[in-house]
Amino acid sequence: MTEERKEELWREETISTEPIFTGKMISLQVDTVALPGGRTATREIVKHPGAAAVIALHEGKLLVVEQFRKPLEKFQIEIPAGRIDPGEDPLTAAARELEEETGYRSDDLRLLSAFYTSPGFADEKLFVYFTDQVTLGTQNPDEDEDLKVDAITLEQAEAFIEEGRISDAKTILAVYAWKIYSLTGRL
To answer: Less crowded by CB within 10 Å, the N or C end of the chain?
Structure first.
Protein backbone atom coordinates (compact mmCIF):
# COMPACT_ATOMS: atom_id res chain seq x y z
CA MET A 1 0.00 0.00 0.00
CA THR A 2 1.33 3.44 -0.88
CA GLU A 3 1.93 6.08 1.76
CA GLU A 4 -0.66 8.28 0.06
CA ARG A 5 -3.26 5.51 0.25
CA LYS A 6 -2.44 4.81 3.93
CA GLU A 7 -2.96 8.46 4.78
CA GLU A 8 -6.25 8.50 2.92
CA LEU A 9 -7.51 5.40 4.73
CA TRP A 10 -6.18 6.08 8.22
CA ARG A 11 -6.27 9.86 8.50
CA GLU A 12 -8.34 11.21 11.40
CA GLU A 13 -10.44 14.24 10.43
CA THR A 14 -11.24 16.70 13.20
CA ILE A 15 -14.97 17.14 13.75
CA SER A 16 -14.73 19.53 16.69
CA THR A 17 -12.22 21.03 19.12
CA GLU A 18 -12.98 21.93 22.71
CA PRO A 19 -10.39 24.20 24.37
CA ILE A 20 -9.85 23.05 27.96
CA PHE A 21 -6.95 25.12 29.29
CA THR A 22 -4.58 27.83 28.07
CA GLY A 23 -1.46 28.55 30.10
CA LYS A 24 1.77 30.43 29.51
CA MET A 25 3.56 27.31 28.24
CA ILE A 26 0.92 24.88 26.99
CA SER A 27 -2.71 24.61 26.05
CA LEU A 28 -4.94 21.56 26.25
CA GLN A 29 -7.77 20.71 23.90
CA VAL A 30 -10.03 17.75 23.31
CA ASP A 31 -10.71 16.96 19.68
CA THR A 32 -13.49 14.73 18.42
CA VAL A 33 -12.23 12.95 15.31
CA ALA A 34 -13.80 10.86 12.56
CA LEU A 35 -12.17 7.46 12.13
CA PRO A 36 -12.32 5.17 9.10
CA GLY A 37 -15.60 3.26 8.87
CA GLY A 38 -17.68 6.06 10.38
CA ARG A 39 -16.53 5.69 13.99
CA THR A 40 -15.57 8.66 16.18
CA ALA A 41 -13.07 9.07 18.99
CA THR A 42 -11.71 11.76 21.26
CA ARG A 43 -8.09 12.90 21.38
CA GLU A 44 -6.64 14.87 24.29
CA ILE A 45 -3.99 17.13 22.78
CA VAL A 46 -1.33 19.29 24.42
CA LYS A 47 -0.28 22.20 22.21
CA HIS A 48 3.25 23.51 22.80
CA PRO A 49 5.22 26.15 20.85
CA GLY A 50 8.32 23.94 20.62
CA ALA A 51 11.64 23.99 22.41
CA ALA A 52 15.36 24.15 21.75
CA ALA A 53 18.19 22.42 23.61
CA VAL A 54 21.98 22.51 23.38
CA ILE A 55 24.63 19.84 23.75
CA ALA A 56 27.42 22.20 24.79
CA LEU A 57 30.93 20.89 25.42
CA HIS A 58 33.42 23.02 27.33
CA GLU A 59 36.96 21.74 27.86
CA GLY A 60 35.79 18.20 27.11
CA LYS A 61 32.88 18.30 29.54
CA LEU A 62 29.13 18.61 29.01
CA LEU A 63 27.45 21.75 30.34
CA VAL A 64 24.36 20.81 32.32
CA VAL A 65 21.92 22.34 34.75
CA GLU A 66 20.36 20.69 37.76
CA GLN A 67 16.92 21.77 38.84
CA PHE A 68 13.85 20.52 40.67
CA ARG A 69 11.21 19.15 38.30
CA LYS A 70 7.81 19.36 39.96
CA PRO A 71 6.04 16.79 37.72
CA LEU A 72 8.68 14.23 38.76
CA GLU A 73 9.03 15.50 42.35
CA LYS A 74 12.82 15.27 42.12
CA PHE A 75 15.94 17.05 40.96
CA GLN A 76 17.13 16.34 37.42
CA ILE A 77 20.36 16.99 35.56
CA GLU A 78 19.63 18.18 32.03
CA ILE A 79 21.21 19.91 29.08
CA PRO A 80 20.16 23.57 28.78
CA ALA A 81 16.83 23.92 27.01
CA GLY A 82 13.72 26.02 26.86
CA ARG A 83 10.63 27.08 25.02
CA ILE A 84 10.78 28.78 21.65
CA ASP A 85 9.07 32.17 21.92
CA PRO A 86 6.32 33.02 19.39
CA GLY A 87 7.94 33.85 16.03
CA GLU A 88 11.42 32.95 17.31
CA ASP A 89 13.81 30.86 15.24
CA PRO A 90 14.82 27.61 17.01
CA LEU A 91 18.53 28.46 16.59
CA THR A 92 18.00 31.83 18.27
CA ALA A 93 16.10 30.13 21.10
CA ALA A 94 18.91 27.58 21.56
CA ALA A 95 21.56 30.31 21.79
CA ARG A 96 19.40 32.30 24.21
CA GLU A 97 18.70 29.31 26.46
CA LEU A 98 22.37 28.25 26.53
CA GLU A 99 23.46 31.64 27.81
CA GLU A 100 20.47 32.25 30.11
CA GLU A 101 20.82 28.90 31.85
CA THR A 102 24.57 28.26 31.88
CA GLY A 103 26.25 31.63 31.40
CA TYR A 104 28.02 30.37 28.26
CA ARG A 105 27.39 31.42 24.68
CA SER A 106 28.24 30.07 21.27
CA ASP A 107 28.20 31.38 17.72
CA ASP A 108 28.72 27.85 16.38
CA LEU A 109 25.50 25.92 17.07
CA ARG A 110 24.81 23.06 14.66
CA LEU A 111 21.45 21.32 14.44
CA LEU A 112 21.82 17.70 15.48
CA SER A 113 18.18 16.63 15.33
CA ALA A 114 14.61 17.82 15.63
CA PHE A 115 11.91 15.48 16.90
CA TYR A 116 8.47 15.34 18.48
CA THR A 117 8.72 14.59 22.19
CA SER A 118 5.40 12.77 22.73
CA PRO A 119 3.42 12.58 19.48
CA GLY A 120 0.67 10.45 21.03
CA PHE A 121 -0.71 13.48 22.88
CA ALA A 122 1.47 16.55 22.23
CA ASP A 123 2.72 18.57 19.26
CA GLU A 124 5.94 19.78 20.95
CA LYS A 125 8.91 19.68 18.58
CA LEU A 126 12.35 19.80 20.16
CA PHE A 127 15.37 21.10 18.24
CA VAL A 128 18.69 19.82 19.60
CA TYR A 129 21.87 21.70 18.72
CA PHE A 130 25.52 20.84 19.28
CA THR A 131 28.55 23.00 19.98
CA ASP A 132 32.04 22.48 21.28
CA GLN A 133 32.86 26.18 20.88
CA VAL A 134 31.65 28.13 23.93
CA THR A 135 32.78 31.32 25.61
CA LEU A 136 31.78 32.84 28.90
CA GLY A 137 28.71 35.05 28.71
CA THR A 138 26.17 36.10 31.33
CA GLN A 139 23.88 33.69 33.12
CA ASN A 140 20.36 35.09 33.38
CA PRO A 141 17.84 32.36 34.29
CA ASP A 142 14.11 33.02 34.30
CA GLU A 143 12.92 34.43 37.62
CA ASP A 144 11.22 31.14 38.53
CA GLU A 145 14.27 28.99 37.70
CA ASP A 146 16.71 27.86 40.37
CA LEU A 147 19.55 26.23 38.48
CA LYS A 148 22.86 24.73 39.48
CA VAL A 149 25.27 24.77 36.52
CA ASP A 150 27.90 22.07 36.17
CA ALA A 151 30.27 20.61 33.61
CA ILE A 152 30.35 16.81 33.74
CA THR A 153 32.49 14.10 32.20
CA LEU A 154 31.09 11.38 29.96
CA GLU A 155 31.64 8.87 32.75
CA GLN A 156 29.68 11.04 35.19
CA ALA A 157 26.88 11.45 32.65
CA GLU A 158 26.60 7.69 32.15
CA ALA A 159 26.56 7.15 35.93
CA PHE A 160 23.85 9.82 36.32
CA ILE A 161 21.72 7.98 33.73
CA GLU A 162 22.16 4.75 35.68
CA GLU A 163 21.24 6.52 38.93
CA GLY A 164 18.18 8.21 37.39
CA ARG A 165 19.56 11.71 37.92
CA ILE A 166 19.49 12.06 34.14
CA SER A 167 16.26 10.55 32.90
CA ASP A 168 14.79 12.88 30.28
CA ALA A 169 14.96 11.92 26.60
CA LYS A 170 16.82 15.01 25.36
CA THR A 171 19.66 14.63 27.86
CA ILE A 172 19.98 10.89 27.33
CA LEU A 173 20.11 11.57 23.57
CA ALA A 174 22.77 14.22 24.28
CA VAL A 175 24.94 11.83 26.27
CA TYR A 176 24.82 9.13 23.59
CA ALA A 177 25.46 11.66 20.79
CA TRP A 178 28.43 12.95 22.81
CA LYS A 179 29.71 9.40 23.24
CA ILE A 180 29.54 8.82 19.47
CA TYR A 181 31.28 12.16 18.91
CA SER A 182 34.05 11.28 21.37
CA LEU A 183 34.64 7.94 19.62
CA THR A 184 34.35 9.04 15.98
CA GLY A 185 34.73 12.81 15.86
CA ARG A 186 31.37 12.93 14.07
CA LEU A 187 27.79 13.37 15.16
So the answer is: N
pTM for the full predicted model: 0.91
Q: Which residues contact 2 (CB under 8 A, 6 or more apart)?
A: none
> pLDDT tens, 10-27?
789 999 999 999 999 999
Which residues fall within 8 angstroms of residue 187, CB to CB, at 6 or more apart?
110, 112, 130, 177, 180, 181
Neighbours of 47 (CB within 10 A): 13
Q: Which residues of the chain have pLDDT under 70?
A: 1, 3-9
Q: Which of the following is catalytic: 73, 143, 155, 162?
A: 143
User: Is 143 an annotated catalytic residue?
Assistant: yes
Q: Which residues, listed in sequence order, are joined to residue 58 by a DSSP beta bridge?
A: 61
Strands annotated E in the chain: 13-22, 27-34, 40-47, 51-58, 61-69, 74-78, 81-83, 104-105, 110-116, 125-131, 135-136, 148-152
Domain ranges of the chain: 3-47, 51-184
- How distant is the alpha carbon of residue 24 from its chain centre? 17
Domain at 51-184: CATH code: 3.90.79.10
